[in-house]
Amino acid sequence: GSDTLDKDLAEVPLGSSIMALAQVYDKIATRSAPFQGREEFRSMLQVQQLSGRTFHPEAIEALMLVVTST
Length: 70
Description:
Layout: H1 14-29, E1 35-36, E2 40-41, H2 44-48, H3 57-69
Antiparallel strand pairs: 1-2
Helix pairs in contact: 1-3
């Protein structure tokens, strides 16, 4: 279920969250096979909805700044 995506972000280093988020974005941007873990991510909207749950909000905000500026 969706609760498998919830993480205790106090236990996840920000750098790890950034790296995982970059991997997910790369899969979406290159339209390669969907990123698969327990869930598939096919759009940035899906990823944004996980801000504060699976990824640090700061990592999501930084990625969105980069993505929207290119």
